[in-house]
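Translate structure to sequence.
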C-alpha cells in the first residue's frame, strides 16, 4: 500500500548533515510516509550514509542519478517523482530539520481544504548567532479579494523556505510551469511560490516549524555579480511575477500599477540585489 506522503531528499555531497536530516523525518509523529533520497552523483560519502539509513528504516530508499544534474534540474526531478508517488509530497534539503509535528500538521491542513495546493509553516532560520523566526505577513492572505478591492501590499512577504512545505500532487503543473523561468537558482523559490500566494493556494499552519540552516554559500555560487546581470535578473523576476495579473480578478490600471510595484519590490528583496544603492 502506498504511503500518503512522499518526502524527497535531492542531495549532492551532503554526507556531513544528511543523517541528521533523515532522522528528523524518521522521528515525525506522522508515520504514513515514504522518503526517497535522490543522490545527484555525490563525490563524498552521501550514498553510503543514505544506504546505511535505508537499512535501518524501510520507509527510506535511494535513487541515484546516472549523470550529475544542475541543482534546479535535480530538485525538479524530485518534484516530479514526488508528485507521481503520492497525493502529498515535500522536498527536504540535506541540512534542514523540522519540528516533530511538521508532516502531521501540514497533512491535516491539506486534508481540511481541497482548494489549497501547498501547506506551509514558519521557518526557524539558523546562523552562527542563533535563529530568527520567519513568518508571513498578514496582508498576503485572501490576496485575490484584497486585489479586487484595489488593495495590494508593497511586498509579498513570506518565507522562501515554503518551497519545503507540503504540496498536493496536482500542484506539479504550476510548479514546473515557472520552475526554469528565472534562469537562475538564486531567488527562484520565492519566484515559483509567488503564484501560490497571489492565487490563495497556500494553507498557512502556525505551530510547526522548518529549521533552515543559513550559510550554504548559494548566493556566492548563483547570485549575479555585476550591475547588468543584477538588473537583468531583477527585471526577469518582476515581469515574470507581473504576468500573474492575468490570473487575478479584473481590476483597474491603478491596482495593476500597485501590483507591478509589489513585484519590483519583491524582486529586490528576494534576490537581495540593490541597484545604485537605493532601489
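Result:
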Amino acid at each position: 500500500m502506498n504511503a500518503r506522503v512522499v518526502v524527497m531528499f535531492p542531495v549532492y555531497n551532503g554526507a556531513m548533515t544528511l543523517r541528521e536530516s533523515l532522522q528528523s523525518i524518521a522521528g515525525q509523529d506522522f508515520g504514513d510516509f515514504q522518503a526517497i533520497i535522490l543522490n545527484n552523483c555525490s563525490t563524498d560519502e552521501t550514498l553510503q550514509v543514505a544506504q546505511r539509513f535505508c537499512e535501518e528504516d524501510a520507509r527510506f530508499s535511494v535513487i541515484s542519478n546516472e549523470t550529475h544534474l544542475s541543482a534546479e534540474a535535480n530538485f525538479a526531478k524530485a518534484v516530479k517523482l514526488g508528485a507521481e508517488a503520492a497525493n502529498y509530497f515535500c522536498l527536504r534539503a540535506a541540512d534542514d530539520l523540522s519540528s516533530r509535528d511538521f508532516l502531521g500538521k501540514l497533512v491535516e491542513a491539506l486534508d481540511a481544504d481541497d482548494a489549497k495546493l501547498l501547506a506551509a509553516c514558519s521557518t526557524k532560520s539558523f546562523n552562527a548567532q542563533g535563529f530568527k523566526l520567519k513568518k508571513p505577513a498578514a496582508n498576503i492572505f485572501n490576496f485575490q479579494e484584497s486585489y479586487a478591492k484595489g488593495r495590494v501590499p508593497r511586498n509579498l512577504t513570506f518565507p522562501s523556505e515554503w518551497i519545503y512545505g507540503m504540496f498536493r500532487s496536482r500542484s506539479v503543473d504550476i510548479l514546473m510551469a515557472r520552475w526554469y523561468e528565472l534562469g537562475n537558482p538564486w531567488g527562484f523559490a520565492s519566484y515559483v511560490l509567488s503564484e501560490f500566494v497571489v492565487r490563495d493556494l497556500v494553507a498557512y499552519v502556525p505551530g510547526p516549524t522548518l529549521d533552515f540552516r543559513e550559510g550554504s554559500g548559494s548566493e556566492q555560487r548563483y547570485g549575479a555579480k555585476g550591475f547588468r546581470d543584477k538588473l537583468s535578473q531583477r527585471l526577469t523576476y518582476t515581469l515574470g511575477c507581473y504576468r500573474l495579473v492575468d490570473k487575478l480578478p479584473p481590476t483597474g490600471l491603478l491596482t495593476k500599477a500597485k501590483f507591478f510595484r509589489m513585484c519590483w519590490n519583491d524582486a529586490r528583496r528576494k534576490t537581495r540585489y540593490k541597484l545604485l544603492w537605493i532601489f
